[in-house]
Design goal:
Helix 7 crosses helix 12 and helix 10 crosses helix 13. It is built from 24 helices and 76 strands. Strands 30, 32, 34, 36, 37 and 42 form a 6-stranded mixed beta sheet that branches. Helix content is about 35%, strand content about 30%. The longest helix is centred in the N-terminal third of the chain and has 146 residues. With about 1650 residues, the chain is α+β, with helices and mostly antiparallel strands.
Amino acid sequence: MEEDNSLFPENELLDSVPLLEDERDELEDPGFEAASLPQEAENGAHPKSSCLVKQKNIDANKTKKIAVEDRAQTFHLRKTLSCLDKMHEEKDLFIQKTREELYACRQRMELLHTQQANLAAEIATESAANNVAAIGRLQAASRRLCTELENERDLQAKILAMLAENEKAMWHIKLEQGQLEDFRKSDEEQVQAARQRLQEHAARQLNWEKEAVGRVDRTQLLRVRRSLHMQKEHGLRHQKLVEDAQKNHKIAVAFLKASLGRVRQREEEEEAEAQEHLRRRMEAVLALKNSITANRETLRKFQAWSRAKGQLAEQRAQVEKEVVLAQGGNAFRHLLHQRRHQELEAQTRAFEEQQKLRRQEIVSRILKEQAEEESHKKQRSPSTAAALQTLRDKTWCYISDIFEGKAIAPAASFLQDDDEGLYGDVSQLGQAISCESVQAEPATIPEEEETLAEPEISGLWNEDHKPYQVLKEGADRKPVGGTKMDKDILARTMDRLRSSLIHRQVASGREFKGRPFNSKPEIIHFKDFDVGKVYKKKITLINATYTINYCKLVGVEEHLRDFIHTHFDPPGPMSAGMSCEVLITFKPMINKDLEGNVSFMAQTGGFSVPLKCSTKKCSVSLDKELVDFGSYVVGETASRIITLTNVGGLGTWFRILPASDPSESDELQSVMKMSSLFTYEDKSEKAILSFSEQQLEANEFSPMDIPSRKDSEKLDSKDQDDMRPAEVERLTVEEQAEIVLGEITEGELSPFSSIKVPIIFTPSIPGEVHTRFKVTFKNPYCPSLYFRALGVTMDVPVWVQKPNMDLKICMYDRLYQDSVLVHTRSKAALRLRFEVCKELRGHVELLPETGYIQALSSYSVQLKFLPRHSLPEDAGKYFDQESRVLEAPMTIWVADQMKPVGFTIHAIVTTSDLEISPSEVDFGYCTIYEAIRTQIRLCNRSLLPQEFGFVRLPKFVDIQPNDGFGTILPLETLQLDVLFQPTKAKEYSFELVCKSEINRCFKLSCRAVGVYPPLELSHYQIKFAATVLYDTSVAVVYISNSHLSMNSLTHSVPRIGSEDAFPVGPTSFEFLPPPDSPITITPLVGTVLPGKRCLVQVAFRPVLPEELICQEALRIANKEMETKLVRKDMSARRKELWKQALSTLQPWDQQKQQLESSSDRYQAAQASLVRAFLGKFDKFVVPCVVASGDIKDRNRSEPLTFSPHNTLYLELWCPAVAPPIVVTSEKGKTTLNFGDVAVGHRSIKKVSIHNISPEDLTMEFSVLDPNGPFVLLNPCGRLHTGETQVLVLSFSPHENILAQEMLDIITKRGTLTLTLMGTGVASIIMCSIEGDVLNMGYVIATESVSTSFKLQNNSSLPVMFSVRLDSLSGRRSEAQRLPRFLASPAQRTEVVGTQNFSGQSVFSVVPVEGIMDPGKTQDFTVTFSPDHESLYFSDRLQVVLFEKKISHQIFLKGMAREHMMFVEGGDTLDVPVESLTVVPLFDPEHREAGSKPDPPSPEAEELRPILVTLDYVQFDTDTPAPPATRELQVGCIRTTQPSPKKTVEFSLDSVSSLQHKGFSIEPSKGSVERGQTKTISISWVPPANFDPDHPLVVSALLQLKGDVKEVYKVIFVAQVVTGTEATGAPKSALDPS
């Protein structure tokens, strides 16, 4: 106890020092944690065991305890030494500071002494001078110095005392350090040794690492050597392979050159044939083009004739109708009979034509049978020379025979096949000829469709050729590429493999169909390649599917594999929109056009990219085929340019020659005439159909009609000129060659270039000149080109430069002018007279009418054209009423010349009228706060566009578009909007004037009534922002009542037109929104007082229709039902189908009610529709009716009278868009229900959001309640397009509450609102222990006792619990606290008392953890097992829920005795803390001896003190107070140990002496059974001679006899206290000594 009461307790020193690593390792030693039971307990439990066994166990325990005690002692000494060093430094620093303060204090004292001496001298001086004022001042200063000196002396004394105290403490610290100096040295040596061992270990580790690095370096060097050796061997092998490849390459080049030579030769021959074939086709195409032009002109004429005929028929029908009506007949019946008669005639004609066609069909069949018979006869006879002709030659012969008029019956055999002839099948001939004439390139004709093909080997297709030969017996009869069965098996296998590789791709409920990848460019085209060069092209493949796809190269077609090489690195999975590149390498080996495909395989199917390789070709053309010089006088010279262009990549030599061969010309004309039968429309089927139709029409005529049609076509090609003797003159003109070529007649035409060739016309003889030229090329594949040159030679001295003057389109009453230029070639002046035909003299004028033209000069005449409205009647035959075309001939008379010079004026005369409909507009009633729009139509009756504009418009009228100005096209009708917005209440009547560009005015009459309503809106149009589905946009509108006075002179008053003014007073309004609209107006009905305004909120919340959602939900349900039915067997499927058929009979309302009850399906359908929503724009006009009066003053049965004219209108623009972000988890639900969560716990839910907008979005989140239970754990700032992110939300309630919050995900495109719901459930646990204290009572040491208690879960959630004991929790901290035995009872807050010496817990609980279901009860068993005697066993049991919340705290108490008797009561004399170093007063031997039957001596007995304090409270001296009472409890512990005595006897001596002093004790002796207690009651009344100032102290011995005898010394302390002392603070216990 002396060590504990020292200046620095060991506990405090140990707690303030941190553990070192090696010390922590020592403390974690199992030998330190778990110690065996003390040997004394075993000896007490088995008193009859042998001494030898005891000694062995004691030695073993001592050996173990010594090691543990050494480590513990070392640990405590280190802590103590560290604490002493720290305190030594602090005390040293404090002493130094104190000494400095003492030194400063002494200096201040010396200074004060010096000042006092100086003051004393000054006082003496002033006293001598008798200066009373100075003396008083100096004396006051002296007194102040004395006071300061006294203060400094006191401070010096305090500092000296403090210094002495600290020096004393310093000496104690040095003494303690001196005692631990040996330990310090040994500890430093141990630390140094540990450091040395650590350095040695580090050195060994470093050596090992160096050896490992050396081994790695050697291994790496060995690998490098092996790699170099392998590279060397690989280089040698590669060099050998290169040499072999070079040798093989030389051999292959030689063979390749020879092969290429043969290939080139064959290609040149083929190209020559192709060029010849192309030349023929181009000639046919040119003729076809001319024929198409002529046919179109003819078609236009027939259409115009048909329209005129139709109009004439309508006029006749109208006239007949009028005649019948005039005669009094039934016009409808007459027209009906006439129409039926016409239909009957048409049916008759159709029947006759059908019969004619059937006859022709019969004749064609007969001819076909005859042709078949002749063919069979010719097959038996040797083939003739005609049979060797190709199909092309036969076709051209057939065409020439037809147009030369030969008989066509014998020609039926030249196109015969083995089965049928061609004469009867006209469509086959049409197909063959059209294929020859319309296709431009021979390479584009597939081999299967080539009808004019020729065999590569002559004689292969002859009739005597035998295609089948008998194979030899040893030859392989298996065909190339396998048998048909092998090919079928291979095709099925490939299809099966492809079907397994191809997967359907479904994204957002849509299945992708189409081409999975798009190629850029779409076709791979190698143009104008050279043999031997290498060409490379890159293409980009872009993923066009919805999600990730794969791409694999399949390859190119078989015939392209020798020339096309593809380099493609598979990129792996590719997202939608991503691309990859493919390199195509083309190395041509032959000069031939190639076509094919590059095939790929994707996850959704195969696709291919077209590939085309084109050789260099020479493509030449002329910009024109006809050069028209016009009219020239003899002696003049004119020049024209014709351009020869080569758009191909191959150049050639050209030469231009006159085409003088008449036979060639006739052949060309015949070809052109034949090709004119066809219609060339880009190789389409129209060519075949047009030819077949014309051929059928030709079959209707006899063979004799063909020459006549040929002659008529010749006449049409010559512009239907008469066959006059001028043909002889034309031949002579051509021979004289008036049209010749210029300087360029031949030369080189480079690739992609053009050459301009001049053509010169020098007229010498009057008449028409026609010359043909031929352009030939050195390249045999380029066909010869032909063009013509026309010119007219005139010998008239006077002529007009423009014989046809076109004045375009002219309007009535407008003046148009032009000049007519007259030329002369005469060498003398001539007199000219200009004459206008008499019909047009009122409209056309030539000025001057007479003039003279000088020699070899020109003369200008002014033409004025002013058409009047009487022009159609005046012009007569020169004016066409339908087409409104004017053709007026003008005449120029030349003196001394009989033949006048004429020219013609062409003009289209039209009106300038603009028509406005309707002619009058009534706007009706309109308030001054709105505008009424009506539409008018403006029609232009003219053939010219006209500019128009509405001028001088009133301020209250507006015309749109373009403010009523614009240009209207010919015969066009424009829709114009007229907006009327009155400015005041009155009746309006006005006219709108529309002016045209020629200053013509057209008027429109309008009228309206202006209304000034009593109420007005702050806004009449609200444009909501684009609102996301199920989001809300709100706008605010104010309704104001500004009607305060009826004085119309000072201001405008509300009225309707010119009616009476609206009364002043409260005015009511009511909004009438459309039904089932997403518009909400608050309030709908209200009253506005005069001079006040009312706020109205307009909310727009777009939603999906309920019907649409229900339909989608039913569709999803049906789809799920079908999926389930597929998986079932047939019997179950039939039952389900029957149930489904019954369910479909339910009405729609019942299904809807069932659907509404199923919220999951409903929300899934709603989410699906929201995801597929494309946007919607609605415009609503909400009327607001106004009435006079207050709605509160009227009864419900008497509604207000609203005027329809005072109605206000609010226009709402409501755009609804799809949400940019949708929820993809849990079927798109936006409501997250966390359910029931225990208070203090957390539940987490995840929500997946997907960006469906086409751009990246920056997200912001609304602020949740910071004190609320909901938390967003991972807010993200950006969501890319097409990206999905997961939001993690937690719900952790702090109380029993139903929580709900809204989380808004805000983007610039809209807001997504998530509804968070959850219920916090408190865990309610009831305990069966009252007072939270469980007293285990007295127990024999080394024995145990158990008791139980119950916990009941009264909450609605299962509760996870765990039980903790404070003695085992390890959370206690006794640092910086006084020892428990030094603290007062009021200061002791520890709940863990004395513990077992063995280290085992005194208290134990079962079970330790588990789960309690709702409403269930859990039993707990607490066991008290002490191993030594103590009265202060205590602990605290905590019931922890969910490892967080402490539900109950139960204090456990227990007492242990080594013997079966105990006494309790009295005042506390010891502390509830035991020291491990305390040694019992008696060792086990003495205790064992004490249990023997021999009575021990009184000196050997242990007297246990019991203090009993009795306070006699005296409130009043007159009234006797009750006696002071106390109680002592004597008990017998129930034990399982064998004992001779079953009871405990007690007795108290000196009872009589106690009674004389006022004590009364009942009972003074007795016995107690096992497990029972008996109470000894003690009362005291002060005797008569009692002195209240001196307390009464007496003692008595209490003897207990049980298994042993115990003697207690009971000390009675009695005193008398007053009432005030008794109610005061309690007194401390007396010191027992």
